[in-house]
């Protein structure tokens, strides 16, 4: 792999270890959101769910600080037909912080809430792996998306008791590395030391909008609509190589497609007898997916619709501090049948999640709520059979067609992700639960 990475040496990162978080980068939701399988767009929101639906911020009554972290293990393998599996399993994680508050002032200003969240992978601010070959097996779902850093800012307005609106921007970094390589003959006794390389790294940010609305139609029915734009980064920059009178200049630009644009519709029913049910249906624009070299894959990815649902139960009055959650859903794969050169990994996935929360305000009069979750993303087995007529000839000087595609004559693969995480929400105000 050719690797471009920009790391930070903050001591707090070392404390995080392989710790997912609050700005809701992929696989990095808070425990409440993850335990409900992300079906929270129509539920009352908090500082940790502002990316899922910024309008939910308008439900907050007092300032909140959310701290979150987790551990993720990806089990992934690839096997060409008739050959042993190649295991690419790994562990990763992230941690994050979110803050949100109602604005002070006159009554109309107190209807406004603002929030800010930061989500970091445990190792890098930005890490981009570029395959050396176009036919190398890669997963658009799991290979790059956990490496994404995210900073979001959001604002919400409580228009009336039955309608809340919100919006925000998701800041995603790109890596710009202008590089100059110069040959200075005689600089050293070792010819390799005659090469001088200069790097100038910068990290510009791109802003992606997200918008949301939540309507409490009646006390036991809430509806929501959310739009989130695609998140894309670039890594590269101009490269200039000078050797005496010879100057070679080129532009390197690698494309990283983190997440597709989404339109999400949600509904929550309840609470009724301390139980509430929510369902989110998401239209995902995977057809806009671009390869690392900023080209449309052939064949192009397919737009799809995923469904997530969750149930939440609050304990009876004698144990009102306890909340139990469970969720599940189905995500169809956006990857079409692959008979040609590409070898993208990722089959349709079943999601199962569970979690619980303890309100320490009711137990010990401490203004903290602690939530825990576990979640599994169980991918089905993917298979592909190649069409020799759709593959290029690797050696035109040899009689017959020579095929060196990594996935030929076919392949199978499977990916599953298992997560565990913990979130603490600190209430800064004086409101009682």
Describe the protein's architecture and organization:
The chain is mostly beta strands and 433 residues long. It has a single domain (9-427), classed as Beta Barrel (Porin). It has helices at 11-16, 31-35, 360-364; strands at 2-6, 64-80, 86-87, 90-102, 112-121, 126-130, 150-160, 163-173, 175-176, 179-183, 195-199, 205-218, 221-228, 231-243, 246-259, 262-272, 275-284, 304-314, 322-331, 349-359, 368-379, 382-385, 410-427. A 14-stranded antiparallel beta barrel has the order 2-4-5-7-8-12-13-16-17-18-19-20-21-23. Strand 14 and strand 15 form a beta hairpin. It is globular, with a radius of gyration of 24 Å. Residues 1-22 have low confidence and may be disordered.
The level of helicity is: under 10%
Give the C-alpha Rg. 24 Å
Q: Main sheet, how many strands, which sense, barrel?
A: 14 strands, antiparallel, barrel
Distance between the termini: 52 Å
**Total number of β-strand segments?**
23
Instruction: Tell me the β content.
Output: over 45%
The CATH class turns out to be Mainly Beta
| CATH overall fold name | Porin
The tally of helices reads 3
Kindly give the count of domains: 1
| Assigned CATH architecture | Beta Barrel
Structural class of the helix and strand makeup?
mainly beta
Lateral arrangement of strands in the main beta sheet: 2-4-5-7-8-12-13-16-17-18-19-20-21-23
Low-confidence runs of at least 5 consecutive residues: 1-22
- CATH evolutionary superfamily: Outer membrane protein transport protein (OMPP1/FadL/TodX)
- Assign an overall shape: globular
H/E series: EHHEEEEEEEEEEEEEEEEEEEHEEE
What is the subunit organization of this protein?
single chain
Residue-averaged pLDDT, rounded? 84
């Amino acid at each position: 792999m050719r690797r471009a990475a920009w790391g930070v040496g903050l001591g707090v990162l070392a404390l995080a270890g392989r710790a997912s978080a609050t700005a809701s980068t992929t696989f990095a939701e808070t425990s409440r959101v993850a335990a409900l399988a992300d079906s929270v767009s129509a539920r009352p929101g908090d500082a940790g769910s502002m990316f899922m639906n910024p309008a939910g911020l308008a439900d907050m009554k007092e300032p909140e600080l959310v701290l979150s972290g987790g551990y993720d293990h990806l089990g992934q393998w690839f096997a060409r037909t008739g050959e042993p599996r190649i295991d690419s399993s790994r562990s990763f994680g992230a941690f994050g912080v979110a803050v949100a508050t109602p604005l002070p002032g006159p009554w109309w200003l107190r209807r406004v809430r603002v929030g800010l969240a930061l989500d970091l992978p445990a190792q890098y601010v930005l890490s981009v792996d570029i395959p050396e070959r176009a036919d190398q097996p890669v997963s658009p779902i799991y290979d790059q998306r956990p490496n994404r850093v995210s900073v979001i800012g959001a604002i919400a307005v409580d228009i009336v008791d039955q309608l809340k609106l919100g919006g925000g921007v998701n800041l995603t970094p790109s890596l710009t590395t202008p590089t100059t390589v110069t040959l200075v003959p005689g600089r050293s006794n070792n010819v390799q030391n005659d090469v001088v390389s200069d790097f100038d790294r910068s990290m510009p940010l791109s802003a992606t909008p997200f918008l949301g609305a939540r309507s409490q139609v009646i006390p036991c029915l809430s509806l929501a609509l959310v739009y989130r734009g695609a998140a894309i980064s670039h890594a590269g920059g101009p490269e200039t190589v000078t050797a005496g009178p010879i100057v070679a200049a080129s532009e390197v630009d690698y494309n990283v497609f983190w997440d597709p644009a989404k339109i999400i519709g949600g509904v929550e029913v309840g609470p009724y007898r301390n139980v509430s049910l929510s369902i989110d249906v998401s239209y995902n624009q995977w057809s806009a997916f671009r390869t690392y070299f900023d080209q449309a894959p052939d064949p192009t990815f397919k737009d799809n619709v995923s469904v997530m649902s969750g149930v939440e139960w609050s304990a009876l009055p004698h144990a009102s501090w306890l909340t139990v959650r469970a969720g599940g859903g189905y995500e169809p794969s956006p990857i079409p049948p692959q008979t040609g050169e590409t070898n993208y990994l990722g089959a349709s996935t079943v999601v199962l999640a569970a979690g619980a929360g303890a309100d320490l305000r009711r137990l010990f009069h401490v203004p903290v709520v602690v939530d825990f979750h576990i979640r599994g993303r169980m991918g089905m087995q993917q298979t592909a059979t190649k069409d020799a007529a759709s593959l290029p000839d690797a050696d035109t000087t040899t009689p017959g067609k020579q095929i060196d595609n990594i996935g030929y004559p076919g392949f199978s693969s499977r990916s599953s992700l298992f997560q565990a995480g913990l979130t603490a929400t600190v209430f800064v105000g004086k409101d009682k639960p």
